[in-house]
Design goal:
Blueprint lengths: L2 H10 L1 H10 L12 H11 L4 H13 L17 H6 L4 H15 L6 H4 L4 H8 L7 H10 L12 H10 L8 H7 L7 H18 L8
Length: 214
């Protein structure tokens, strides 16, 4: 928990202050031991799938490489597209994973040591050169692998929906409008995003199916 972030957000935004009281301290954690390649492959797996389905596919994928906890880019030369397809990846995602491996090997995608020295926008520019990798995907890497503190993923559905609910808006905010509003949260956009995600999660938990017979 970053006390400075909480103090700043509470001071500039009463809605954020309320979310902090209701939800408690920020519990965002990052995983710095993952390589950029692993983070991006995992992000590709999660695209357009729920978490359970994506994690099942990733578990099968990792079993193709029993000598590793997670394959290295060069390891993909030892498996066929058909083997990867059998794990549950679509052919478009297989092409993306192959491209991620190639661009990691040629240096377009930086190593863990190199990426730590780069600024957020430089990382986004480098990584979005890979097939199937957009800004949102890199923003998830910035947050959950690198622990960057001022990332506001305005294209994320959960962030936008959390904003709609927390600020009692009738419609989803447009990404540009949310980005403009979020300037007041800087340089703690990541913490603000976490609270918006939790606001959206809380609303989903409150919606329960009725068991009443009609």
């Amino acid at each position: 928990m970053n006390a400075a972030a909480l103090k700043h957000l509470a001071a500039v935004d009463p809605v954020m202050a309320r979310l902090m009281r209701e939800l408690g301290p920020c519990r965002l954690a990052h995983e710095p031991w993952r390589s950029p390649f692993q983070s991006l492959v995992q992000a590709v797996a999660h695209q357009q799938l729920n978490g359970t389905a994506a994690n099942t596919i990733l578990t099968r994928f990792k079993k193709l490489f029993p000598q590793r906890r997670f394959p290295k880019p060069a390891d993909l030369a030892d498996v066929t597209n058909e083997q990867i397809r059998a794990c549950g990846f679509s052919f478009s995602k297989i092409a993306a994973i192959r491209d991620l491996a190639a661009k990691t090997l040629d240096g377009t995608i930086p190593s863990s040591r190199e990426i730590a020295k780069l600024g957020d926008e430089e990382i986004i520019e480098r990584l979005t050169a890979a097939r199937g990798v957009g800004r949102w995907t890199v923003e998830m890497l910035l947050i959950f692998q690198l622990g960057r503190t001022d990332v506001l993923p305005v294209d994320d559905f959960g962030v936008r929906n959390g904003f709609r609910l927390a600020y009692k808006k009738r419609a989803m905010p447009k990404p540009k409008a949310l980005l403009a509003f979020g300037k007041k949260w800087r340089p703690h956009g990541t913490t603000a995003a976490w609270y918006l995600w939790r606001a959206a999660d809380g609303a989903r938990r409150q919606v329960k199916p009725s068991n009443k017979k009609k």
